[in-house]
Amino acid sequence: MRTSLLSTFFLLFLMLLSTSPSVVSLTCKPTELAPCAAAILYSLPPSDACCSKLQEQKPCLCQYQKDPSLHGYVNSKNSKKVGTACGVPAPSC
């Protein structure tokens, strides 16, 4: 129940961010990283879809890192593990 609630919260959080013009540009959409939610939240191995989306969103990671509402996710230990597993290093902004 708790994992389902956290997953639902994470996805809703990403959806809300995608509607905020101050957070998202035309190409940077945090919701595109939804396939990575389980890997980041529960320390599971990232899926191929997650790695693909992470590669696509790589130019946006600094923007996400600077956003106070995303900072905790981007800088989390699990997020860094997912990035390493997908061949996407943590951004140095």
Write the layout of secondary structure elements.
Blueprint: H1 2-18, H2 37-42, H3 48-56, H4 61-66, H5 71-74, H6 77-86
Helix pairs in contact: 3-6
According to DSSP, the number of beta strands is 0
Overall radius of gyration: 12 Å
Stretches with pLDDT under 50, minimum 5 residues: 11-26
SS class: mainly alpha
State which percent range the strand residues make up. Answer: under 5%
Question: What series of H and E elements makes up the topology?
Answer: HHHHHH
Q: Provide the helix percentage.
A: 55-70%
Principal-axis shape: globular
Task: Put the structure in a nutshell.
With 93 residues, the protein is mainly α. The chain has 6 helices and no strands.
Describe the structure.
It holds the Pfam family Tryp_alpha_amyl. Belongs to the plant LTP family. B11E subfamily. Keywords: Lipid-binding, Signal, Transport. InterPro entries: Bifun_inhib/LTP/seed_sf, Bifunc_inhib/LTP/seed_store, nsLTP2. Residues 1-25 form the signal peptide. Mean pLDDT is 81; it is low at 11-26. The protein is built from six helices and no strands. By secondary structure, it is an all-alpha fold. The radius of gyration is 12 Å and the shape is globular. 56% of the residues lie in helices and 0% in strands. It has helices at residues 2-18, 37-42, 48-56, 61-66, 71-74, 77-86.
Question: Which features would summarize this protein structure in a list?
Answer:
93 residues, mainly alpha, 6 helices, globular, Bifun_inhib/LTP/seed_sf, lipid binding, lipid-binding, nsLTP2, Bifunc_inhib/LTP/seed_store
